[in-house]
Every structure is written in structure tokens, then in C-alpha cells.
């Protein structure tokens, strides 16, 4: 009589077809007992499970996508390793021995756990987005651009938990356990995937009151005669101002009266009329549109920087990362952060 023991969830053909060949050492070398034992057990158990459930070596071979003789050899090696006969075979039926039933009862739960883990990994990549996503961003960009979009994102994907890390230090994907990172400036790291969301525009601004009292610098050199406000990077270095003059990049580091390591404090000092500063467009667009700030030297704004969304690899990208990248790219591009184009049209 054919003895079939239901496993509940049948192993997938992809899982069970991964039966490795016998681990055989190259000629002249001694086989590694651990490697040999592992290969025999792995292949044998998968073949054993398939035969036990199908009640036939031929049907098990069809299910695994391999030859019947390969299934038989794997089971025979497993029986030799266990020093036990696992199947009773006749020309008409195949059933489990008492030892086979005991072995099946012991090993099927382990196989089921493996299959469940495989399915969960497939679900994370292909199923509905869920789980936890750790995201890093520069402090000011995260506060002003990324954070306001999270409410809509979580309403759209309620099974996703977002862990936001705001820091102006370069992101270390491995040690910080970051999935996705926003980065500003120029990308020169070949080890990560970087997708530009929008250009990063750097604009020199001041308050209308400051302009009324101190006038307008007409050239980059004239900035030396104005009180400037600098931004100190997380590395401790003061951020150099950059301009495009006659098609060439020109850097300028003013002798500033005030220096902050927080971009929002730089903006507030400028709004208070304490001096001029070069700031990213996303930070000043609202104030420029409302008239709270006025721009200088727009014609010399650099155009080779960007705001990027970055991650380590395109391969096996989980659905939680794909939807976040697509959502943020679409929403940020729709936020109309292109101040330079507006200012150029206004001047024209």
C-alpha cells in the first residue's frame, strides 16, 4: 500500500529542484567530511520528502525536474548515511517504513520552516510593501522636503514603518543599517546607486531690508565687501560658496561674521538681515516667492549639483524600497523647487 504523509504546504518545485550534485573531492584530495555529509543530507532529504508525498519515485522526479535515477541515488545515499531503510518498494507502490515515518515526522517541520522563510523573502520583494524601512537624509532637506511627505506615504502604505535618521554626515549604509539615503551635491561614490531627483540650486540671498541698506553685489568679487554668513559641514570644514563664471566653476570662501552648523539657522540669520548667504534652493524657494528674501548673482548659480536618492544595489530590491523610491521621486519633483528658472523669467 502506498503511504503518503501530508505535509500541509507542499514544497515548491524551485525549492526542491535545488538538489546539489554529490559532493565529490577532486582527484588526489581527501573529501571534507562536513561538506560531504551536508550535500548528501540536503539532497537526500529533499528527494525523500518528494517521494514520501508523491508516493512514487517517478512522480517525485517529475516534481523536482530531475531524472528518476537521480532521486533514487539521493535517497539511497541518505539511507546509507542513516543506516536505515526509509521506503518499502514494490513494482506497484512505494511506502514509508517505520523508520521512514519517524524520519519524516522529524524533518518535515524543518523543511516547512525553510519553505516559509523562502516565501517570506519572495513576498518582501514581490508582495504588498511591508516591514521597516530605515532612511537617512541631510538634516534640513529631511525636515523641509522628506518629512512633510511621510504622512501621505504612510496612508498609502500602512504596513510600512519608517525610521528616519537625520544627519549631515555621510551615510554608511552598512554600519548605520540604512536602506535608502538622500544625498546632496555631487555624486562620486561608484559603490552606490544614485538617482537624481532634482537639481540642487545654490542661491545667494539677503533680506529686502539688507539690500536697501547695503546694496546689491553685482559680481562675485563684490561679495568680499558684504557681511557673509557661512555654513559649517558635519566634517568641521566650512562650506565653500560656488559659482559658474564664464562657464568655469569658481569657489569662494568669505571671511564670515557668522558661521552655523545648521542650515536653518543660516536661513534665519539672513531673514533677520544680518548678512548674505549662499543656500540651497529648497531652503529659500518659499521665502523668495513671498518676497521675504531677494536673490543675488542668479546668473552665476552653479548647475552641476543635485539632490539624490541612493541605495546599495538594484538587485533583489524589496518592494518596500521600490515604492518609497518611486513615491519620493514623484512627489519631490512635483514640489516645484526650481527657483532659478522662476527668477530668470522674472528678471527677463
For the structure shown, list the relevant keywords.
348 residues; alpha/beta; Arc Repressor Mutant, subunit A; D-Maltodextrin-Binding Protein, domain 2; 3 domains; five-stranded mixed beta sheet; three-stranded antiparallel beta sheet; 11 helices; 42% helix
Average pLDDT reading: 83
Q: Which fold name fills CATH's third level, the topology of the largest domain?
A: Arc Repressor Mutant, subunit A
What's the structural domain tally?
3
CATH superfamily of the largest domain: Winged helix-like DNA-binding domain superfamily/Winged helix DNA-binding domain
Assign a percent range to the helix content.
Answer: 40-55%
Tally of contiguous helical segments: 11
The run of helices and strands is HHHHEEHEHEEEEHEEEEHEHEEHH
User: Beta-strand percentage?
Assistant: 15-25%
> Which radius of gyration do the C-alpha atoms yield?
32 Å
Distance between the termini: 92 Å
Task: Provide the CATH top-level class of the largest domain.
Answer: Mainly Alpha
Main structural class: alpha/beta
Q: Largest sheet, described in full?
A: 5 strands, mixed
The tally of strands reads 14
Just name the CATH architecture of the largest domain: Orthogonal Bundle
Secondary structure elements and pairings:
Elements: H1 13-16, H2 33-54, H3 57-64, H4 68-82, E1 87-89, E2 94-96, H5 98-126, E3 131-137, H6 139-156, E4 160-166, E5 180-185, E6 193-199, E7 202-206, H7 208-214, E8 229-231, E9 241-245, E10 248-252, E11 258-260, H8 263-271, E12 277-280, H9 281-290, E13 294-296, E14 306-311, H10 319-333, H11 339-347
Amino acid at each position: 500500500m502506498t503511504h503518503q504523509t501530508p505535509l500541509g504546504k507542499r514544497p515548491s518545485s524551485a525549492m526542491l529542484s535545488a538538489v546539489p550534485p554529490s559532493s565529490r573531492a577532486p582527484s588526489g584530495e581527501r573529501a571534507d567530511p562536513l561538506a560531504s555529509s551536508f550535500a548528501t543530507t540536503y539532497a537526500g532529504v529533499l528527494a525523500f520528502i518528494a517521494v514520501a508525498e508523491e508516493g512514487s519515485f517517478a512522480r517525485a522526479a517529475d516534481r523536482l525536474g530531475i531524472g528518476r535515477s537521480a532521486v533514487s541515488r539521493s535517497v539511497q545515499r541518505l539511507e546509507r548515511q542513516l543506516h536505515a531503510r526509509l521506503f518499502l518498494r514494490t513494482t506497484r507502490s512505494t511506502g514509508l517504513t517505520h523508520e521512514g515515518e519517524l524520519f519524516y515526522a522529524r524533518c518535515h517541520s524543518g523543511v516547512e520552516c525553510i519553505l516559509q522563510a523562502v516565501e517570506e523573502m519572495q513576498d518582501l520583494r514581490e508582495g504588498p510593501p511591508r516591514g521597516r524601512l530605515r532612511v537617512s537624509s541631510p538634516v534640513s532637506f529631511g525636515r523641509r522636503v522628506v518629512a512633510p511627505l511621510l504622512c501621505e506615504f504612510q496612508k498609502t502604505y500602512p504596513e510600512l514603518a519608517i525610521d528616519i535618521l537625520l544627519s549631515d554626515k555621510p551615510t554608511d549604509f552598512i554600519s548605520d543599517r540604512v536602506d535608502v539615503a538622500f544625498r546632496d551635491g555631487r555624486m562620486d561614490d561608484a559603490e552606490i546607486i544614485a538617482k537624481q531627483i532634482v537639481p540642487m540650486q545654490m542661491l545667494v540671498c539677503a533680506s529686502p531690508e539688507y539690500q536697501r541698506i547695503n546694496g546689491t553685489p553685482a559680481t562675485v568679487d563684490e561679495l568680499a565687501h558684504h557681511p557673509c554668513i557661512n555654513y559649517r559641514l558635519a566634517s568641521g570644514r566650512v562650506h565653500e560658496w560656488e559659482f559658474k563664471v564664464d562657464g568655469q566653476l569658481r569657489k569662494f570662501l568669505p571671511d564670515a561674521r557668522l558661521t552655523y552648523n545648521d542650515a536653518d539657522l543660516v536661513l534665519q540669520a539672513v531673514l533677520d538681515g544680518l548678512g548674505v548667504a549662499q543656500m540651497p534652493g529648497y531652503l529659500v524657494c518659499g521665502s523668495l516667492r513671498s518676497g521675504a528674501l531677494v536673490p543675488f548673482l542668479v546668473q552665476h548659480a552653479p548647475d552641476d549639483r543635485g539632490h539624490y536618492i541612493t541605495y546599495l544595489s538594484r538587485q533583489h530590491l524589496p518592494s518596500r524600497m521600490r515604492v518609497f523610491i518611486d513615491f519620493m521621486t514623484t512627489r519631490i519633483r512635483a514640489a516645484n523647487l526650481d527657483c532659478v528658472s522662476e527668477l530668470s523669467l522674472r528678471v527677463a
